[in-house]
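Saturday, quiet lab. Running sequence design on the structure tokens for the scaffold JK sent over.
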């Protein structure tokens, strides 16, 4: 579900027309729906309510302080992957006891900060990391609670660049050797193995990988407990897919059906790390057409959002629905199937101003005629959009707006040219 709808052939975010937002805040512009954020958070909370999970919002998907704070105010903790994300989580008011620190390359400085703030848990991914964490904890006279991140070696299930539980990726401890590793730290004075962590990749459109992961996890938890580890939490990560093309994603309840029975059987506290599922369909990227041109037998729509604003199409060949904010009367507003033959359209490449052939938001896409000044909406852009944005080609990053009913709040101002050079001028 999302609250982006066309009314009288004009796209609205909740009760506000998108053209009015573009006029007030300029383009490119990220627009988020508060109601959609809350709906998807509640869907996860309700689906797993039977086991009273800790839902840790994945800061890496969208780290805006206002969105993170909103998540925390409605019961979520935070999943962080760096010192910067830990800083954001704390700045957003997240209790440190609801913060889980993931990532394969935590530095000593990041570990020290996390220990100083008494976070709930470190997800550990290598023997070297665990030994480094033990040294840091010893120097501080503390004990670090650890969940071992295990790579369960499941079949491929999503894009190769975001599939984190197949052989040969950098993530996690090998399921075939993790028990040998775990045996070495039984009774360690400064690190305590209290949990198991499995993150299977993202976005995943089937519950089957989670069923397979749960089966392997139950066996592993029994063996870890047999070694003497007190395993009382099980972090099943995130990765639940969303609607990018049409209605291809499963509801949270479908994943709960295969995860909850295993959690109950294990007796563990469930931790989840959803991000995309909550924020992905809660945001759109609004852009304005600068020019159109025909070249080499192709029609190009050149608009003011670029790969530096939304890199997913370039990086992952990701599909995002793109449609005019106020389409002409002879075309759908919008179509049900963006990959079908749509009357009144032509094949276009939607590209940006960046000097790279890979700068595009959509390729070979059916779009109705647009002209200079028209607005386009790129949907499902709330996750890994602004979070992965850059200043490439000297482009200031976009503004972000959060809509609540008929009210809009600027939650990140548009960067200026002065912002681009400030760290260099200051030295």
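Result came back. Writing it out in full:
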């Amino acid at each position: 579900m999302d609250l982006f709808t066309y009314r009288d052939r004009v796209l609205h975010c909740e009760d506000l027309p998108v053209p009015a937002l573009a006029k007030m805040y300029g383009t490119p512009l990220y627009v988020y729906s508060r109601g959609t954020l809350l709906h998807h958070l509640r869907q996860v909370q309700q689906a797993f309510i039977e086991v009273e999970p800790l839902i840790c919002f994945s800061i890496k998907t969208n780290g805006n302080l206002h969105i993170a704070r909103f998540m925390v105010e409605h019961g979520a903790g935070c999943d962080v992957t760096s010192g910067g994300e830990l800083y954001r989580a704390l700045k957003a008011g997240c209790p440190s006891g609801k913060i889980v620190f993931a990532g394969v390359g935590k530095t000593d400085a990041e570990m020290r900060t996390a220990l100083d703030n008494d976070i709930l848990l470190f997800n550990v991914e290598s023997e070297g990391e665990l030994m480094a964490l033990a040294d840091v904890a010893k120097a501080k006279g503390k004990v670090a609670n650890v969940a071992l991140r295990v790579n369960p070696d499941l079949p491929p299930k999503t894009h190769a660049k975001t599939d984190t539980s197949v052989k040969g990726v950098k993530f996690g401890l090998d399921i075939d050797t993790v028990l040998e590793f775990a045996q070495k730290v039984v009774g360690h004075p400064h690190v305590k193995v209290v949990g198991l962590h499995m993150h299977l990749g993202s976005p995943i459109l089937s519950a089957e990988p989670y069923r397979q992961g749960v089966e392997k996890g139950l066996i592993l938890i029994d063996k870890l407990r047999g070694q003497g580890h007190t395993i009382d939490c099980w972090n099943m990560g995130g990765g639940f897919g969303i609607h990018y093309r049409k209605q291809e994603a499963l509801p949270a309840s479908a994943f709960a059906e295969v995860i909850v029975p295993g959690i109950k059987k294990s007796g563990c506290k469930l931790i989840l790390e959803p991000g995309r599922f909550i924020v992905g369909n809660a945001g759109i990227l609004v852009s304005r057409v600068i020019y159109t041109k025909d070249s080499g037998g192709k029609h190009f729509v050149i608009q003011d959002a670029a790969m530096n604003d939304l890199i997913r199409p370039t990086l992952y060949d990701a599909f995002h629905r793109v449609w005019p904010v106020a389409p002409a009367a002879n075309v759908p507003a919008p179509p049900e199937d963006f990959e079908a033959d749509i009357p009144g359209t032509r094949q276009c490449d939607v590209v940006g101003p960046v000097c790279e052939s890979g700068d595009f938001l959509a390729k070979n896409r059916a779009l109705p005629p647009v002209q200079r000044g028209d607005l386009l909406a790129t949907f499902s852009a709330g996750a890994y959009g602004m979070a992965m944005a850059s200043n490439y080609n000297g482009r200031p990053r976009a503004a972000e707006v959060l809509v609540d009913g008929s009210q809009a709040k600027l939650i990140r101002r548009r960067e200026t040219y002065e912002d681009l050079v400030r760290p260099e001028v200051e030295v």
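Notes for JK: The mean pLDDT is 94. The longest strand covers residues 283-295. Ask whether to fix the surface positions before the next round.
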